[in-house]
Amino acid sequence: xxxxxxxxxxxxxxxxxxxxxxxxxxxxxxxxxxxxxxxxxxxxxxxxxxxxxxxxxxxxxxxxxxxxxxxxxxxxxxxxxxxxxxxxxxxxxxxxxxxxxxxxxxxxxxxxxxxxxxxxxxxxxxxxxxxxxxxxxxxxxxxxxxxxxxxxxxxxxxxxxxxxxxxxxxxxxxxxxxxxxxxxxxxxxxxxxxxxxxxxxxxxxxxxxxxxxxxxxxxxxxxxxxxxxxxxxxxxxxxxxxxxxxxxxxxxxxxxxxxxxxxxxxxxxxxxxxxxxxxxxxxxxxxxxxxxxxxxxxxxxxxxxxxxxxxxxxxxxxxxxxxx
Length: 324
Prior knowledge:
This protein is α/β, with parallel strands linked by helices. The protein is built from 12 helices and 9 strands.
């Protein structure tokens, strides 16, 4: 009897271990949805659709991108957080939705740390500090010198105090010990237009939003906000070269509603990593937005989010940023 019980126990254990694997191998058996907080035609939307197309080919199932813009990412994030954790709805998220919103808004209708399970990283989106072609400021040191000798006079266009570009503008002023005149715009395109027209002297924006204007000579990048210089802009210094440790970039990642089967999350992570590490895909993504090094592992994504929360929590105290 004991031997029979042992054999039955071994069979039950084997079946329990095999079930999640079988579920992951058979998944997906129907279309997979990616909820996005940005509108159709935006940079993140283009990235999501490009990746979704490749995953669809890999899985043999449609990957549907559902745009839920508005509310500083809150509308899309809330929809994803409330979705059934059945492995068929995921959230294509930005740094704002998963981290910085926590320190900027009092009553978020979702909790990014409790409502989501990390799946994988997409990539980091570098930001740049640019001026128009006619500007007398020809280099990053010249801009810093002007800002220091003319407190409050340097007008810096960005997308507003509760956006990544607005936060970077504020952090830059604090790190340099200078006072700048931060000018919020309703969209990055409006900020670009006014900087080219000379209404504002400096623009802080993500690199993809200004790449075309830089290539046509209408804007001149003076520095990038990442720790190192970026591919294709090798002559543009990183701010970290003069401010060691300065490293601020937007990023995109995939998360799932909390409770999504771990085996499905792991499968999505592995397939996403394979797609992102394809050389052609890496180049295509870089042309429209993020610099990618692959999805990483689920624990690595989790650790990254923990570190980001710790960093922005500290910054919110240092800069006296009060959620509203």
